[in-house]
Automatic annotation (TrEMBL):
Role, per record: Regulatory DnaK co-chaperone. Direct interaction between DnaK and DjlA is needed for the induction of the wcaABCDE operon, involved in the synthesis of a colanic acid polysaccharide capsule, possibly through activation of the RcsB/RcsC phosphotransfer signaling pathway. The colanic acid capsule may help the bacterium survive conditions outside the host.
Subunit structure comment from the entry: Homodimer.
Signal peptide positions on this chain: none
Protein name: Co-chaperone protein DjlA
Topological domain spans for side Periplasmic: 1-4
Topology versus the membrane: Single-pass type III membrane protein
UniProt-annotated location(s): Cell inner membrane
Keywords, sorted A to Z: Cell inner membrane, Cell membrane, Chaperone, Membrane, Transmembrane, Transmembrane helix
Record GO terms (molecular function): protein-folding chaperone binding
Primary location recorded for the protein, binned into one broad class: membrane
CC annotations in GO: plasma membrane
Cytoplasmic side: 29-282
Length: 282
């Protein structure tokens, strides 16, 4: 209502009766946009009644784009299909949700897949939240790394995805380096598939003290190997804040993706703990 009032007032002031009519129209558009911002994505999350629908769109879009990434190099590998299946299991999807995810994955492989339009939907369903969009992008990077490396055609698609989600080429390349390091860190560290159980040390934890594992740990956190304790802690806290499962859930992450968010947080924690242990940081 306030938009209409102000529109009429300033329209009359500067343009007389015709200006008032024009001001009324502009004010109406302002009020309409204001209601959408206050209702649809209140407090930065999903809007009440639409929450489940938007979360479902986010989930199915993730699998559709994942299928598109997998198909980029011409043939979908068994590792990529296995990764999609593993993700479904980690998300504890019910039979109906699995069918929807599988169908979305198949649609993503089609030659006429409307990538840009789907990415627009993702931006809307996420409310434009940076951390949710980043989580979505990291899912696609993980899919590209399913077979251990990123094909040039997959990298090209990832750049399109990043651009569609509002990330720069530099931001994508940094995430690619971090994910590549995370892939090696998980494989070399052998933390039960990349997950450090209960904070207890094991024989596999000792293996992670190698120079290559330490280097990968720094890359996982996105810092240089000469970073001091303060820089390291700042990077760690930033990443944990971006990937904290509870915070992502509060902002609209589908509950089915909670386990994956936890795993990512644990991966960051593992890297940080290793560097502190080897370097003697507190």
């Amino acid at each position: 209502m306030i938009g209409k009032i102000l529109g009429v007032f300033f329209g009359m002031l500067f343009g007389g009766p015709l200006g008032a009519l024009f001001g009324l129209f502009i004010g109406h558009q302002f009020d309409k946009a204001r209601r959408l911002n206050q209702g649809g994505f209140a407090r930065g999350g999903f809007g009440g009644a639409d929450q489940a629908k938007r979360q479902e769109e986010f989930l199915t879009s993730a699998y559709a784009v994942m299928g598109h990434v997998a198909k980029a190099k011409g043939q979908v590998t068994k590792e990529e299909i296995q990764l999609a299946t593993i993700m479904m299991d980690r998300m504890n999807l019910n039979s109906e949700q699995k069918r929807a995810a599988q169908e979305a994955f198949r649609e993503g492989k089609s030659a006429d897949f409307p990538l840009e339009r789907i990415l627009d939907k993702v931006r809307i369903s996420s409310g434009g939240r940076h951390d949710l969009l980043q989580f979505f992008l990291e899912l696609q990077i993980s899919a590209a790394f399913a077979d251990g490396s990123v094909h040039p055609a997959e990298r090209e698609v990832l750049h399109r995805i990043a651009q569609g989600l509002g990330f720069s080429a530099q931001q994508l390349e940094q995430r690619l380096r971090m994910q590549e390091a995370a892939f090696r860190f998980q494989q070399g560290g052998n933390f039960g598939g990349g997950h450090y159980q209960g904070g207890q040390q094991s024989g596999s934890w000792q293996q992670a003290s190698s120079a290559s594992q330490l280097s990968d740990a720094y890359d996982v956190l996105g810092v240089s190997e000469d970073a001091d304790a303060k820089t390291l802690k700042r990077a760690y806290r930033k990443l944990m804040n971006e990937h904290h499962p509870d915070k992502l859930m509060a902002k609209g992450l589908p509950p089915e993706m909670m386990n994956m968010a936890k795993e990512k947080s644990q991966e960051i924690q593992n890297a940080y703990d290793l560097i502190k242990k080897v370097k003697g940081f507190k």
